[in-house]
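Input sequence (276 aa), recorded before submission:
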Amino acid sequence: MITKNLQDFDIEQIANSGQCFRITQITPGTWAVKALGHTLYIIKGNEYIFDCTEEEFARIWYNYFDLGTDYSIYKEIIRYSGDRYLIDAINFGHGIRILRQDLWETIVSFIISQQNNITRIKKIIERLCLPFDGIFPSPALLKDYSEDDFKAIGLGYRAKYIVSIVRAVLDGIFDLHYLKTLPTQEAIRYLQKFNGIGAKVANCIVLFSLHKIDAFPIDVWIKRIIDKHYSSKFPIEKYAPFAGIVQQYMFFYERCKKDVDTGDASAYHKERGLGL
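Predicted structure, token format:
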């Protein structure tokens, strides 16, 4: 085990920010992170205890949690803008970071996320990984799965999209390596060529796996914020180079602040099961 004093990092806020579905609270103050073929246990306190070696932390988790990025720079730009809503959002979600997740897992996860809620998404992904010792299955491992197989674990109408994506990757039609080389807007357009990936899902994929932090996913929560606080026109040009980070602060704040507003300051730490 190793101990780290990390700035601008809160594993609980990251887990509840809607960007990934395999960070789970297992006991009060203890979290399990399943990613990149590994499982990491984290104990939250004044400092963080990571159940891994320094070598593993440096090789895997430092990059996964984007710890090489100074988020205080983004926060300072937001504070300087004078935008009261965003200032409140960064103060509320001070420990959020954009994870650098596996591309394939992110594609499948966000196809599953459509018209779904976080609690249900997590359960579906758990069932998907169960036959593979908890490791997220590659396209090759899913090649013999039918729509009925995917429906059996709860995918519903999304099953046909996963079957199609698996086949496209295995046939070389969907080139994951090529996708990684594309700039943001080209990557988004490339993703939208495939059934089951619309604009919001494509933006989520490039933001949360390719770390294209200029992507700006717009879901019902973000649309509600823009309509309510910005008269239906958010000044994205002010934050364009890191719009995706701004989006995460906004999303987390809007989903969770009402529990604080009503006096239950701890409630936002619980798994919400709210639609994405």
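Checked by second reader. The radius of gyration is 18 Å.
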